[in-house]
């Protein structure tokens, strides 16, 4: 994977030939070192309909300066971006192309803007000579490609050093403000270049502010939620490829939320059209689930081992667990990325776009959102109640474990239904989701115990076959059994509170 750098910066409006105030008067700044002027030449790339710009993503190929090469920037928060760098080459590096796949799909990226900048750099150092921030005065000349309109401006950019306290930017901004220098209205050079070189009829591709359907109708409410989850899938794709913390889990949750919504609100969206989509979302969540389940299981086993007194940790239990986890984690990650690289996944994204562009609305879509959504939530709650009652009627054992797992899935669907209804139903939906989540969490803990016991049995078998003692694995198995029994005993009370909605 290419190099990644967290970029924390702010931009300011400046007149041509603007004077920068004395920055040694900024708190903690002892010295300002003038680095001189560097000439930069950057060509920004995007899809013909500017999908990357619509999501505040920038892709450029830049020459000049110390970091010449390809730069791909993803927004993290206001003024914060992750910049992923790759060496200079004539074509887009495959690593960067993969990170854009969920947005570009089967299309291509093309040059859209060329920016030539004269960058006058000043390094702000503390009393120890350590870098706090860099301030540059950039004289920018932009041209829309190919051969389009031009624009020019001057701006000031202040970027915090990698290990510096970001609050240095507040101090610098205060000093610039006293000199009459104000924050820029454009979030990036590319955004400004597009704004100043694009005719009104050719503005960057923007998603509709609201989905189809009259405001206040069930159709508008459900489609807004579907759009949110579909957007989350697209946005989380590059995070999974970068192996960012919790990215697989969040993408899997978006798939599950969307699939649940298509089932719960089938009175609003025709199930004949959404059913195949639900099947594909189930497939994708399953492929991602291998990695997520392994992550959760390994963390659970490590935590359990840490709780075992050293005198009861017999044999090379930590080493065996580490070897087991390493082998399975590598395979699981490969499977998740392979799913995102597949044509099947791209087809799913295209079908989601088609669904949102021309939604298969049913008659209930035109009715009052509060009534339709409340009815659907109550129906999912009744479904959950039937499964919990069935599970509690069974004797402890394998059949009850299976029934509790089915109840857990129903609880998750009911919770997601409540979450989807929160913008419409407000506090009652929030309260519903919170109570059902407690049921889901308890049932989830029980199911995790079932899976963990099966893994412990396998680890014990492997240890025995290798001539090691299986004592510690058996000890953990017993603890998991006790935890499962406790969860089953707690369920009636937790469920009783959820029923009193």
Summarize the structure in words.
With 501 residues, the protein is an alpha+beta fold. It has 14 helices and eight strands. It has helices at residues 51-54, 94-99, 101-104, 168-178, 189-197, 218-241, 247-264, 271-307, 317-340, 343-357, 369-393, 398-425, 427-465, 471-499; strands at 3-14, 31-46, 58-63, 69-77, 80-86, 110-125, 131-144, 150-160. The chain has an eight-stranded antiparallel barrel. The radius of gyration is 28 Å and the shape is globular. Mean pLDDT is 92; it is low at 204-211.
Features of this protein?
single chain; 501 residues; alpha+beta; eight-stranded antiparallel β-barrel; 14 helices; 18% strand; globular
The largest sheet is: 8 strands, antiparallel, barrel
Distance between the termini: 50 Å
What is the average of the pLDDT values? 92
Strand content bin: 15-25%
Number of helices: 14
Specify Rg, calculated over alpha carbons.
28 Å
Query: Regions with pLDDT < 50 over 5+ consecutive residues?
Result: 204-211
Strand order across the biggest sheet? 1-5-4-3-2-6-7-8
Helix content: 40-55%
String of helices and strands: EEHEEEHHEEEHHHHHHHHHHH
Shape: globular
Helical/strand content category: alpha+beta
Put the structure in a nutshell.
The chain has helices at residues 51-54, 94-99, 101-104, 168-178, 189-197, 218-241, 247-264, 271-307, 317-340, 343-357, 369-393, 398-425, 427-465, 471-499, and strands at residues 3-14, 31-46, 58-63, 69-77, 80-86, 110-125, 131-144, 150-160. With 501 residues, it is α+β, with helices and mostly antiparallel strands. It has an 8-stranded antiparallel beta barrel with strand order 1-5-4-3-2-6-7-8.
């Amino acid at each position: 994977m290419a190099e990644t750098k967290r970029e924390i910066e702010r931009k300011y409006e400046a007149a041509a030939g603007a004077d920068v105030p004395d920055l040694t008067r900024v708190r903690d700044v002892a010295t300002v070192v003038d680095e001189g002027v560097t000439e930069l030449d950057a060509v920004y790339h995007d899809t013909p309909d500017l999908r990357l710009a619509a999501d505040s993503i920038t892709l450029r190929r830049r020459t000049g300066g110390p970091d010449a090469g390809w730069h791909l920037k993803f927004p993290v928060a206001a003024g914060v971006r992750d910049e992923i760098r790759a060496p200079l080459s004539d074509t887009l590096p495959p690593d960067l192309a993969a990170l854009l796949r969920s947005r570009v799909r089967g299309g291509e990226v093309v040059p859209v803007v060329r920016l030539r900048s004269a960058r006058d750099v000043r390094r702000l150092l503390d009393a120890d000579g350590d870098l706090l921030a860099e301030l540059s005065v950039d004289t920018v000349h932009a041209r829309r490609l190919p051969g389009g309109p031009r624009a020019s401006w001057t701006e000031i950019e202040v970027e915090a050093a990698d290990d510096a306290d970001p609050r240095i930017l507040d101090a610098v901004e205060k000093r610039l403000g006293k000199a009459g220098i104000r924050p820029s209205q454009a979030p990036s050079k590319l955004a400004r270049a597009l704004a100043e070189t694009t005719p009104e009829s050719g503005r960057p591709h923007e998603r509709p502010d609201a989905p189809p359907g009259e405001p206040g109708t069930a159709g508008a409410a459900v489609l807004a939620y579907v759009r949110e989850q579909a957007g989350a899938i697209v946005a989380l794709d590059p995070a999974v490829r970068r192996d960012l913390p919790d990215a697989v889990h969040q993408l899997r949750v978006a798939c599950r939320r969307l699939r649940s919504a298509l089932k719960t609100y089938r009175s609003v969206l025709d199930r004949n059209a959404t059913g195949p989509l639900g099947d594909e979302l189930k497939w994708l969540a399953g492929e991602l689930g291998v990695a997520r389940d392994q992550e959760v299981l390994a963390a659970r086993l490590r935590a359990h081992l840490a709780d075992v007194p050293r005198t009861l940790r017999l044999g090379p239990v930590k080493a065996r667990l580490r070897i087991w986890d390493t082998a399975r984690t590598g395979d699981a990650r490969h499977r998740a990325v392979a799913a995102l690289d597949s044509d099947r996944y791209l087809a799913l994204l295209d079908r989601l776009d088609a669904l949102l562009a021309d939604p298969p609305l049913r008659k209930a879509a035109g009715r009052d959102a509060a009534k339709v959504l409340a009815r659907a939530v109550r129906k999912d709650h009744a479904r959950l109640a039937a499964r919990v009652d069935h599970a509690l009627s069974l004797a402890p054992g394998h059949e009850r474990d299976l029934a509790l797992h089915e109840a857990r899935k129903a609880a998750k669907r009911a919770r997601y239904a409540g979450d989807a209804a929160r913008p419409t139903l407000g506090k009652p939906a929030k309260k519903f989701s919170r109570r059902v989540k407690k049921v889901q969490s308890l049932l989830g803990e029980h199911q995790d115990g079932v899976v963990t016991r099966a893994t412990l049995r396998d680890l014990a078998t492997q240890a025995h076959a290798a001539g090691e003692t299986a004592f510690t694995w058996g000890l953990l198995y017993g603890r998991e059994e006790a935890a499962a029994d406790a969860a089953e005993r707690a369920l009636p009370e937790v469920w009783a509170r959820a029923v009193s909605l």
